[in-house]
Design a protein that fits this description.
alpha+beta; six-stranded antiparallel sheet
Amino acid sequence: MTTHEFGELQNLSSMYDFADGTKAEQYIKTFENGYTTSTIRHIHSYGGNQGLYEVGLLDSNDNFVSVEHITGDDSVVGFLTAEEVKEILNKVSML
Protein backbone atom coordinates (compact mmCIF):
# COMPACT_ATOMS: atom_id res chain seq x y z
CA MET A 1 0.00 0.00 0.00
CA THR A 2 1.04 3.55 -0.68
CA THR A 3 1.26 5.94 2.27
CA HIS A 4 -0.22 9.43 1.89
CA GLU A 5 -0.67 12.20 4.45
CA PHE A 6 -4.34 11.08 4.65
CA GLY A 7 -3.32 7.47 5.40
CA GLU A 8 -2.80 4.23 3.50
CA LEU A 9 -4.12 4.31 -0.06
CA GLN A 10 -6.73 1.59 -0.62
CA ASN A 11 -7.65 -0.11 -3.88
CA LEU A 12 -11.15 0.84 -5.00
CA SER A 13 -13.16 -0.73 -7.77
CA SER A 14 -12.93 1.13 -11.08
CA MET A 15 -16.73 1.50 -10.90
CA TYR A 16 -16.08 4.44 -8.53
CA ASP A 17 -13.75 6.23 -10.96
CA PHE A 18 -14.79 9.56 -12.45
CA ALA A 19 -16.06 9.83 -16.03
CA ASP A 20 -12.97 11.87 -17.02
CA GLY A 21 -10.74 8.92 -16.12
CA THR A 22 -9.66 10.28 -12.72
CA LYS A 23 -9.23 7.44 -10.24
CA ALA A 24 -11.36 7.13 -7.11
CA GLU A 25 -9.40 7.52 -3.87
CA GLN A 26 -9.69 6.09 -0.36
CA TYR A 27 -7.20 6.52 2.46
CA ILE A 28 -7.38 4.74 5.83
CA LYS A 29 -5.52 6.22 8.80
CA THR A 30 -5.45 4.60 12.24
CA PHE A 31 -4.43 6.77 15.18
CA GLU A 32 -2.72 5.79 18.43
CA ASN A 33 -5.89 6.76 20.33
CA GLY A 34 -7.85 3.98 18.60
CA TYR A 35 -9.76 6.13 16.13
CA THR A 36 -9.60 5.52 12.39
CA THR A 37 -10.48 7.84 9.54
CA SER A 38 -11.58 6.93 6.04
CA THR A 39 -10.98 9.74 3.58
CA ILE A 40 -12.60 9.22 0.19
CA ARG A 41 -13.16 10.99 -3.10
CA HIS A 42 -15.20 9.23 -5.78
CA ILE A 43 -18.36 9.64 -7.85
CA HIS A 44 -20.64 8.79 -4.90
CA SER A 45 -18.85 10.67 -2.11
CA TYR A 46 -20.05 13.98 -0.69
CA GLY A 47 -18.28 16.57 -2.86
CA GLY A 48 -16.43 14.04 -5.02
CA ASN A 49 -17.77 15.45 -8.26
CA GLN A 50 -16.38 18.86 -7.25
CA GLY A 51 -12.95 17.39 -6.49
CA LEU A 52 -13.60 17.51 -2.74
CA TYR A 53 -13.20 14.86 -0.05
CA GLU A 54 -15.39 13.10 2.50
CA VAL A 55 -14.07 11.88 5.87
CA GLY A 56 -15.67 9.20 8.03
CA LEU A 57 -14.70 8.65 11.66
CA LEU A 58 -14.59 5.18 13.22
CA ASP A 59 -13.98 4.11 16.81
CA SER A 60 -11.69 1.31 17.98
CA ASN A 61 -14.40 -1.27 17.15
CA ASP A 62 -14.66 0.00 13.55
CA ASN A 63 -18.08 1.55 14.18
CA PHE A 64 -18.80 4.90 12.59
CA VAL A 65 -19.12 7.56 15.31
CA SER A 66 -19.81 11.27 15.50
CA VAL A 67 -17.73 13.71 17.50
CA GLU A 68 -19.37 17.12 17.63
CA HIS A 69 -16.33 19.34 17.09
CA ILE A 70 -15.08 17.10 14.25
CA THR A 71 -17.98 15.56 12.32
CA GLY A 72 -20.95 17.39 13.83
CA ASP A 73 -24.14 15.34 14.14
CA ASP A 74 -23.00 12.70 11.67
CA SER A 75 -20.15 10.20 11.44
CA VAL A 76 -19.08 11.61 8.07
CA VAL A 77 -18.40 15.10 6.83
CA GLY A 78 -18.10 15.95 3.16
CA PHE A 79 -17.31 18.71 0.70
CA LEU A 80 -13.84 19.14 2.22
CA THR A 81 -10.70 20.60 0.68
CA ALA A 82 -7.39 18.83 1.26
CA GLU A 83 -6.53 21.46 3.90
CA GLU A 84 -9.81 20.83 5.73
CA VAL A 85 -9.10 17.09 5.71
CA LYS A 86 -5.70 17.76 7.30
CA GLU A 87 -7.39 19.86 10.00
CA ILE A 88 -9.83 17.03 10.77
CA LEU A 89 -7.02 14.46 10.93
CA ASN A 90 -5.16 16.71 13.36
CA LYS A 91 -8.27 17.02 15.57
CA VAL A 92 -8.75 13.24 15.55
CA SER A 93 -5.13 12.75 16.58
CA MET A 94 -5.77 14.89 19.68
CA LEU A 95 -8.83 12.94 20.89
